[in-house]
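Dataset card, provenance and construction

Sequences and ligand SMILES were collected as paired inputs. For each pair, a complete structure of the chain with the small molecule in place was predicted and serialized as structure tokens. The example below shows a pair involving nicotinamide-adenine-dinucleotide. Curators did not alter the output after generation; any descriptive sentences attached to a record were derived from the structure itself.
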Amino acid sequence: MDLKLSDKVVFITGSGGGLGQKFALDFAAEGAKVIVNDINARGIEQTVDLIKQAGGQAMPGLCDITALAAVKDAVKKAETAYGRIDILINNAAVQFAQVPFIETRPEDCDREIQVSLYGTLHCSRAVLPGMIERKFGKIINIVTDAARAGQEREVNYSSAKGGVISFTKSIAREVGQHNINVNAISPAATNSPMRAEALRRLQEKIGEQKLQEREEKIRRVYPMRRIGEPEDVSNTVLFLASDLSRHITGQVLSVNGGFIMPG
Ligand SMILES: NC(=O)c1ccc[n+]([C@@H]2O[C@H](COP(=O)([O-])OP(=O)(O)OC[C@H]3O[C@@H](n4cnc5c(N)ncnc54)[C@H](O)[C@@H]3O)[C@@H](O)[C@H]2O)c1
């Protein structure tokens, strides 16, 4: 099926690795022009190279999304190069030590909120004027089921993502009249470098055997009996970026193998 993304320009935060890189490759394969944002310059280079080797179009969008001036600058450069931004994927996030809330460091909490929540606000603030002017836009925010269901030892991270969920709904109400859809995708556990790093830290703490037992237990909690893969999330991102979903806005869609089923 042609998703009609071939003339679209998409800005993807945190696409120098992990799920964001998969989104970038998939949009490019659909013919979209991709701005690869990250703070990791090597990661950006890798994603841009992979896209170009496959015959796609991409440019780097290096900036720390917690700094509004830097975001505005990156968006301006992208609009100059590609003419506009049609689609924004707010994907970048950080997650620090998974320990009880009272043991977390306030500075880590600040950073988690800065990247997930302020990063999303800053990028949206930078692209929305152009989208409103052109009366077209899609914003897709990547959140987490940890925010929808609650998750011990992920209190700061899930609080930041809870803010992104509220932002999704409120801004969708404001900008729907301009033909702009804003939605959130809520993955549960998905194999990515972020998850691999969390597992590595856990393995150091509890050892390989206990880790594997825990992984098996986790799989049993999922009705589909599997952990998500990057393409599971990416396919949903493509759907929400396409006109197939033009009547969907302000929604939070879990991509989670049935882990939770919010009403
Ligand atoms: N992997 C999972 O199990 C899982 C589950 C639920 C939700 N998610 C969400 O999916 C999204 C992607 O997660 P992932 O697993 O690919 O993570 P990841 O850590 O692999 O990738 C995140 C990317 O964001 C970049 N980044 C961090 N801070 C930044 C900043 N200030 N400015 C620009 N870029 C920055 C990092 O360099 C990295 O490339 C996140 O929003 C995460 O919360 C992931």
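Derived descriptions for this record:
Residues 13-14, 16-20, 37-40, 43, 64-66, 91-94, 115, 119, 142, 144, 187, 189-190, 192-195 surround nicotinamide-adenine-dinucleotide (CB under 6 Å).
Residues 106-134 form the longest helix (29 residues).
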